[in-house]
Every structure is written in C-alpha cells, then in structure tokens.
Amino acid sequence: MDIYEPQEDSLLLKKYIKKYSKGIVLDMGTGSGIQALEASSSKKVTKVYAVDINKESIDYCRRNIISKKIVFLTSNLFNIFKINKRFKDIKFDTIIFNPPYLPDNPNDNDIALDGGKKGYELICRFLNEAKPFIKPKTKMLLVFSSLTGKETIDRYLSKKRFKFKELEKENIFFEGIFIYLIENE
Questions:
Q1: Cβ-count burial of 49 within 10 angstroms (0-12 exposed, 13-18 middle, 19+ buried)?
Q2: Which domains, from first to last, does the chain contain?
Q3: 53 DSSP assignment
Q4: What is the end-to-end Cα distance of the chain in Å, rounded?
Q5: How many CB atoms lie under 10 A from the CB of residue 83?
Q6: Strand 70-74 to strand 45-52: parallel, antiparallel, or no bridges (unpaired)?
Q7: What is the pLDDT of residues 145-174, one digit of tens each?
Q8: Spatial separation of the C-alpha atoms in residues 102 and 66, rounded to whole Å
Q9: Is 123 within 8 Å of 168 (Cβ atoms)?
C-alpha cells in the first residue's frame, strides 16, 4: 500500500484550510498529512486529529511531521472515535475530508482512489457517520470529482439536512474537482 501523494485535489483543498479551520480539527484520510499540517499552522486551531485507514500513511506522518498540535491515528473513518474511550464524546469544530472518490476500477485496487462502485459511496458513509461528531456550527471541507456524481452528492447532502456551497471548481484533464463547504442546517 502506498501513501497518497498530494495531487491537484489536495492542493486545491489546502487553499481553504486556514480560512475555515478552527478549534478541534479532524483531517479524515490524512494521506501525506499536508492538510493536517496546514490546519495546525493556524492560531485558531487548538488540536488536529489526522486519521487514515492506511497504517503506512500514519507511520510516514509520525516520522516526518513534528507538531504538538497533531495526533496521528489509524482508523476506518470514525471507528477510533467510536471504540476508544480516550476519545469519548469528542466533537469537531472543523472536518477536512479528501476522500477516495473515483468509481470502482476493477483493474486498480488502490484504496486511496476507490470511493465505491459509483464513487460516492464512501462520501455518503462518511456523512452518515459524521453527525455524532459535529457541533451545530461545525464546518466541513470536502473535495470530490465530477466523476463521483455531483448531483448525487448534492441530493444526499440535502436529504441529510446539510447546508452546502461550492467554494471552487477546477477542471483538470477529464474531470472537474469540487471543493464544498458543508454545515448543519
């Protein structure tokens, strides 16, 4: 398993981290840790939990990123916060998520890219699991591709009673990359 190296989507998302990050931040799917590091550099941020399912990513980050504000954890989405008593009752002020969002490719088993059969399944699962960990004013930053199904994501966010707005769209090769700001209604 490799570490997800920052690509255009990561760099586009990074532009919004300092503007929206505050308090206790969750960097879900931290990969190389660039979003966690960016968030930790903000004076408005007190703690960053950087989480990834890929243990190699977490080991890499622990070796290469030094910050008293960042805690690196291996977890499948919110599982560590559900089962570890140390994190009982934690709620985040900001959540950053650069998920795997491409539709399943049977020829490529890269979990850093595979968002499910249609590409949006992991994002929907994340949104379902997020509710117990957010405050009324929590801001979530989400990046995804036009290949993920923007209309499906929009409908799902509305159905789950989230307010959302597109902060930016960038066309890269054969797809559009979207950055969304998501909040409770």
A1: buried
A2: 8-184 (3.40.50.150)
A3: S
A4: 38
A5: 10
A6: parallel
A7: 887 888 989 999 999 999 999 999 999 877
A8: 31
A9: no
Q: What span, in angstroms and rounded, lies between the C-alpha atoms of 156 and 146?
A: 15
| Cα–Cα dist 173/86, whole Å | 44
Pull the structure tokens for residue 152: 């499906």
pTM for this entry: 0.89
**Which whole-number Å values give the CA distances from 95 to 1, 8, 43, 77, 85, in the listed order?**
25, 19, 17, 12, 20
Classify 147 as helix, strand or coil.
helix
Cα–Cα distance between 150 and 138 in angstroms, integer?
22
Q: Which residue has the tokens 């570490």?
A: 3
Helix (H) or strand (E) holding 96, with range, is: strand 92-97
Locate tokens 């499948």: which residue?
76
